[in-house]
C-alpha cells in the first residue's frame, strides 16, 4: 500500500533548464558547458558539502567565476511545471497521501520552488543538499523511509531516470519511471 510519494523534481515534475536555458545564460553551447563545468564541484554542491560562493569559484574548470545571481534568475525564469503535473499533485494532495521531493539538487531548489510553488504540494526535506546523499545511492531511498518510520514498500518513488528507478527497486521500494507517455494522474489512482 502506498502511504507516501517520493518524487524526483527535475524532468519529472519541472522542466529541466540545464539543456537550453543555462547554456544560453552562460553564452556557450551545451557541449561546451559539459566540457568546462567542474563536475566534482557540482556533485559537492548538490550534496551540501560546499557553499554557493565556493561553487561559483569552482563552477568552471578553466576560469571565470559563475554569476550566482544571474544563474538563480535563470532558474526562476525557466523552471515550469510540466503539463498535467499541477493537476496531478492537487489530486494526490486531496487524497491525503503525503508527498516529498527526493531530488538531487543544490540549495538552489529554493529558486525552483519560488518559480513553481511546489512546496504547496511537497516537502523538500529529502533534497540531496539537505541529506548529503545523491540518488542512486541506496541510502537516498532508505534514509527517507527510515525518517518517515515506514517500510520501503510503503513508499512509491517516481523519477525520469532509469538508473534511479532501478536503484529504488533494488532496495525494495516500488518505483515508476516518468516518461512523457506516463499519465501521472492515472498512475496514482
Structural commentary:
With 189 residues, this protein is of the alpha/beta class. The protein has helices spanning 21-26, 30-36, 39-46, 52-58, 68-78, 85-95, 109-116, 128-131, 139-147, 162-170, 184-187, and strands at residues 4-7, 99-101, 155-159, 175-177. The protein has a four-stranded parallel beta sheet with strand order 2-1-3-4, covered by helices on one side. The mean pLDDT is 94.
Question: What's the short version?
Answer:
This protein has 189 residues and is an alpha/beta fold. 44% of the residues lie in helices and 8% in strands.
Largest sheet: 4 strands, parallel
Low-confidence segments, ≥5 residues, pLDDT <50?
Answer: none
Shape: globular
The percent range for helix content is 40-55%
Quaternary status: single chain
Encode the helix/strand succession as letters: EHHHHHHEHHHEHEH
Mean pLDDT: 94
Radius of gyration using CA atoms only: 17 Å
Helical stretch count?
Answer: 11
How far is the N terminus from the C terminus?
A: 12 Å
Amino acid at each position: 500500500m502506498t502511504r507516501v510519494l517520493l518524487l524526483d523534481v527535475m524532468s519529472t515534475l519541472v522542466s529541466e533548464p540545464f539543456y537550453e536555458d543555462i547554456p544560453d545564460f552562460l553564452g556557450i553551447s551545451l557541449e561546451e558547458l559539459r566540457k568546462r563545468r567542474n563536475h566534482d564541484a557540482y556533485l559537492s554542491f548538490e550534496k551540501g558539502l560546499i557553499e554557493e560562493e565556493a561553487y561559483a569559484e569552482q563552477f568552471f574548470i578553466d576560469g571565470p567565476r559563475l554569476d550566482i545571481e544571474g544563474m538563480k534568475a535563470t532558474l526562476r525564469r525557466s523552471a515550469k511545471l510540466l503539463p498535467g503535473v499541477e493537476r496531478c499533485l492537487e489530486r494526490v494532495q486531496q487524497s491525503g497521501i503525503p508527498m516529498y521531493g527526493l531530488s538531487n539538487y543544490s540549495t538552489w531548489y529554493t529558486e525552483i520552488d519560488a518559480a513553481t510553488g511546489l512546496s504547496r504540494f511537497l516537502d523538500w526535506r529529502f533534497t540531496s543538499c539537505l541529506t548529503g546523499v545523491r540518488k542512486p545511492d541506496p541510502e537516498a531511498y532508505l534514509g527517507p523511509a527510515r525518517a518517515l518510520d515506514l517500510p520501503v514498500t510503503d513508499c512509491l518513488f517516481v523519477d525520469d531516470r532509469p538508473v534511479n528507478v532501478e536503484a529504488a527497486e533494488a532496495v525494495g521500494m516500488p518505483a515508476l519511471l516518468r516518461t512523457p507517455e506516463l499519465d501521472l494522474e492515472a498512475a496514482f489512482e
